[in-house]
Structure formats: C-alpha cells, structure tokens
Amino acid sequence: MQLQTHFALFDEGSKKEIRRAILKAVAIPGYQVPFASREMPIARGWGTGGLQITLSIIGKQDVLKVIDQGSDESVNAVNIKKLVNKTTGVETTIETSEATIIQSRHRIPEVPLTEKQIMVLQVPIPEPLRWVEPSEFKTKKLHAENDYSGAWLLLFEQIMKYGKTVTNADHPVFVHDRYVMAPSPIPRFDNTKMHQSEALILLGAGREKKIYAVPPYTNVNSLAFEDHPFEVESFDGKHCHLCHAATVFMDELINQETGESYYQCNDTSYCLAKLNEQEHMPEVVIEHAR
Amino acid sequence: MAYVAVKGGTEAIEASIQRLTFERIRSQELLEIKTIMATMRGMVDQVMSESSLYSEFLAALAIKQSEANMEEAVFLLRAHRSTLPRLYYTRVVETDTMAVERRISASFKDIPGGQILGASYDYTHRLMDFDLIDESKSVMKVWLEQFKNDEKSASESSDLTALPKVVDYLRQEKLFVEVEDDDTEPIDVTKQSIQFPTTRGERLQVLTRGQTGAVTSLGYAAIRGYGAVHPTVGELRVGKLPLTISYPTDPTDDIDNDYYIGEIKVTEVEAFVPISTQKENNVEEIEFEIGYGICYGQNETKAIAMSILDQSLELGSGVHPTQDEEFVLLHIDSVESSGFISHLKLPHYVTFQSKLDSMRKIRKA
User: Fold this and answer.
1) In the prediction, which pLDDT does A139 show?
2) Tally of CA atoms within 13 A in the half-sphere of B287 that contains its CB
3) Which residue out of B3, B7, B14, B334 would a mutagenesis test of the A interface target, given it has the greatest number of A Cβ atoms within 10 Å?
4) Measured between CB atoms, which of B3, B351, B365 is closest to A289?
5) Do the Cβ atoms of B83 and A9 come within 8 Å?
6) A102, B152, B215, B244: which has the highest count of C-beta atoms within 10 A?
7) CA torsion, points A121, A123, A126, A128, in degrees to nearest 10?
8) CA-CA distance, B239 to B260, in Å (whole number)?
9) A264 to each of A104, A275, B93, B122, how far by Cα in Å?
10) Does A251 touch chain B (CB under 8 A)?
11) What is the pTM of this model?
C-alpha cells in the first residue's frame, strides 16, 4: 500500500473548505469563523490552525518563513517548515522581507510587513472572553450582542486591585470598531503592529476550530481606558548585547556566573540582519541545542 | 540556550529523530505488520476507533511506527486521514443485518435468538499464563486442528445475520415510548465544527471518536455519582456490518444498484435507562430511555460508556459535569487533549517574559 502525498498535504476539498472560512474571516474583521479543523501530522496545540491556513493558501511560487518565539530555528518552526517544504517543495527563508507567507507563533517580525505578504498566526485560545465566560455557547452570544462589558470589567478590576492594567501577552483588541479579538498570544509590544497593517493577518486556532482575520489597513486598537492608557512591555534603557538594537522586543538572559541579566533581540533574523549590516561583526558564540 | 537557538535547531532535531529510530530498533527485533494485525486485535481496534479510520493495515503500521504508543498511533492515523478526500457517504446501515459474533443482554436472560458469548475476556481468570512464554507454532497448529473439529460437531445455530433486536421485543411489550424515526441528514463533525447546543448525531460522532480512556472515565463518573444515569445493558453486540454506497449517477437511487464496499467490525450497545417523568395529574412515572453506543472493533467498555454519556447528555439538566455537553464533548478527543497538554513542552519565552513584566510592574506599584 504505497501512497503519494498530495501537494500541500490536504486533499483539494479540504483546502477549499478552509479557504472559504478564510474569505469569510477577511470579510468580517475580527469575527471568529468556525471551521472543521483537520487532524494534522503535528499535535493539536502546536500550531495546527496556522499550518492549516498556510497549507490552504500556499502556491508553488511562495516563499515561506516560520517563526516560533521569535526564532526561525526553534524546534517547532523547523518542524513546520520541514513539513511544508516536504509536501510542497516551496522555498523557505529566514529573511522577513523575502517571505510571502510568514507563519508565526507569538511574534510579529520587527521589520514592517508589506502588501505582498500574508502573516499567519498560530492561536491557542481565540476567545477573548474565555476568562470571563467558560461557555462557548454564551461567548458566541456576547459577541453577537456586542456585549463586551466582561472584557472591560476584567481590565477595570485589575485597576481596582493593582492600580493599573496588568494583562500579559494576548491583550484584547478592538477590530474595526466591532469585534473584540484575541490577537493570539503576541506580546502587547506587537499589538500596535496589527493596526493599519499593510499585510493581511490571518489567525488560525486548530484545536478550538476557529479562523479569524485582520484585513490590510484595518483599525486595531488595544482595549484601554482614557485615564489608564494601553502600555506595551518596556525595555527602557536596555539594548541587545549582540546588535545593540534598543526599540525591539527582547529576551532577558541571565549570565550564569555573575547572575546579572542581559538582553538580546527576540527576533533572531532581525538581529542577524543587523549584525551583518555592521562592518565589524563581533565574535558571537552560539551554542548548538542538543 | 536550551532548545531555542539562533542556529543549530535543525541539527538538534535531526539528532533527536535519529535517536528515536535507534530506540525502536536497538534490540534488533522487528515486528511484522501482519503480526500486529494478527495478534494485537485489541489495540488495532482501539486505534481505528479513536482515529475514525477503518483500516486494520494502516492501524497496524501506525502501531509499529509509534512503538505501540496509543496516543501517537492515533495521532499518526488521524493525520493520515486528513490527506484522504471524503468521497462518499455509505447508505444508512440497519444493525439488525449484523453478522453477530457476540451478543449478550444483561437485562433479560431469555432473549429471542439467545445469548451468544463469542470471544470475551469477561469469563477468563486474569491470571498470568506463563505457558505463553514458550508458545510454539507446532503446539498452536495442533490446538487449531482440535478447535476446528469441535466446532464442526457443534450444532448448527440460527441465522446470525438476522437476529432480532432486544429493543424491538420490548417495544412490542409497550415498555418504551414510541419515538419517531429522525431521518434528518446528520452533520459530519469532521467537515463542520460543532456548534452548541449540538444535535444528537454530532454528539454520537464525537463520543465514538473519543479517547477510550476518557470516554470510559467520564462514563464511570456519570454512574458513580457525578451524573444521574443508572443503566442496564439491554443488548451488547459485536459483529460485522456490510457497507454499501449508492450508484453515483443513478437518478432513481435504487438500492439494488448499490456498490458493496466491504464490512466493518463494530461493538454496539443499547443501554436501558429508567427515568421518572411527571404525568398530567402530577403522578411520577418511570419510563425507559435508550442510551446508544457504537464504535469500531471489539471495544465493549467504550461502547457501554458511550451509551451512558449519550443518555447523560440527552437528559441534560447540567447539574453534573457529565451532563454538560461542552465539558464532555470538548475534552474527550485523544488528538486534541494530548496535543494541547504536550504543547507545554514548547518554549514559552515570549509569553513568560511578558508575564515577568507584569509581575514586576505590580510589585513596583
């Protein structure tokens, strides 16, 4: 029993179904479109939603970049890239500007995206109201009735408790003045990159069976009060110890000997590009993961 | 730098995969697919059931590849399922046409057609059989010869493909409420995501695909105290069902033109659940309702647990978690639950960094 793998794994019928869900998502910005969600060769919860979108929209001429936690070489990123390359033969890249499709877990690249690119985000929990209301049936109603008091109350309670809003990654956003949306677990730092983005942003949640989207040039505003404005993670006075970038999202690393913390660009391809630009490339010791 | 590296991820993965292959073959013993199909019936059946793909061969291959790790084998087969187009739906199968191998009723000892025990572990002593350590092919052949001879001398039994249903018998006795057939086209949960509240057809599909252990434990919970179901197994059948599809271009949709595409082995359970209903004059009356369970292969515990959960969800009230369809249906899937649990192994540096930031802000404030 020898079976050939189809282009981009899925049968054409499945791709069509997913593309229909994507079209609906684009037509209603921020609305979570239910879709059947196929079982994938990677685990549910490991980016199957993003992968299903990528496989449904990818063509032979595309160039794919996959990011996981800001890194192109992280296990999951490599895994997904390998799978897509194996079933489609499309080129992969780590250069953000070269990619036509960028699938990502947790980050939007530091380099601004263009109209020619599609950003695909992997989403674990697409429901921004899940922490307020555990029932899917009820949250769907709340969205329909434009009732987001729960989301506001959550922020208000934080202010009452702590004196300020203390959301982590996945700070809810208002899309096109209608739907409150979970921007996938991107850090608050990246929320602003969604606003009036030139690139189409598609978000896929495989386990939760939802696809939603932010079309290009759409307003995306993070939920905040006038007297308690939205704040992103701050890296004031910090800079990357490799490329010295200062206005990017950074990983905090600990020097094992001194116990002091130092910082490094989270977007590794951005960091590498900056290093290449600089004439005297510093000696960088890079450990191999084993 | 742990397992997110600026460079080196590719080599690290490659080495890990090599290691995995090494672990599988290090002892220099190989398991033939046909050996798995012939000797691991229980596991093959469970993998097919949870994968909702009926192929003993592919299930055996998945078992070999995954070193008989259940969640991994189901994962492989489900993923393979995604590459297959869904071309046809079979005709509705009436389970009275089942070629019965085993059929028991825990409700009535004298059922029309009789009790047929068939192959079951239920009546064995669970003692380790140390004779199996030195089982040989020659001994096996002698045993088989003997068995076949004994079978021949056994009396010819009734037609096992046309046994009446115990339920029908009880219906004639008017012990059940007459329910009208619902011929609404069911929603295929693999092509359309379920929306709450669900239909019974959707529930049954999710339950039958459910992870054997999860379905069993929730079924257990429903009868142990976290539910209100007290069932009796009315009929449990194991046997083969013939499947046909209609002739695609035949406008008359004549059953006689159907294609026979093979048979599948299933376990079917009809559990009788007494419920009390309030009659007009405020008198409480007890009626039977049927909880239904069916799954691929011989997997009786799962089919019974499924019938319990079916009734539990049908009843609804929501007092217990086992009556809450979102709680039950969204958590019993093997691929989904193991996938999200195992994602915790992925790095969470970005979200954790963000969390650190919030924690520090709170402390400063």
Assistant:
1) 95
2) 14
3) B7
4) B3
5) yes
6) B215
7) -80
8) 17
9) 19, 12, 62, 62
10) yes
11) 0.86
Contact A174, A220 (CB under 8 A): yes
**Length, in residues, of chain A:** 290
Active site residue A45: no
Q: pLDDT tens-digit profile of B253-312?
A: 888 899 999 999 999 999 998 887 777 777 777 778 899 999 999 999 999 999 999 999
Rg, chain A, Cα only:
20
Question: Residue A254 burial by CB count (10 A; 0-12/13-18/19+): exposed, middle or buried?
Answer: exposed
Task: Please give the DSSP secondary-structure letter assigned to residue B116.
Answer: B
Verify whether the Cβ–Cβ distance A39 to B357 is below 8 Å.
Answer: no
Distances (CA, A) of A223 to A131, A158, B21: 15, 13, 49
Q: How many CA atoms, within 13 angstroms, populate the side-chain half-sphere of residue B118?
A: 17
Collapsed DSSP state (helix, strand, coil) of residue A254: strand
| Closest by CA position to A171, among listed A27, A158, A163, A136 | A158
Work out the angle between the directed axes of helices B56-65 and B41-51 (0-180°, nearest 10): 100
CA distance B27 to B22: 9
- Integer distance in angstroms from the first to the last C-alpha of chain B? 32
pLDDT band, very low/low/confident/very high, at A280 (cuts 50, 70, 90): low
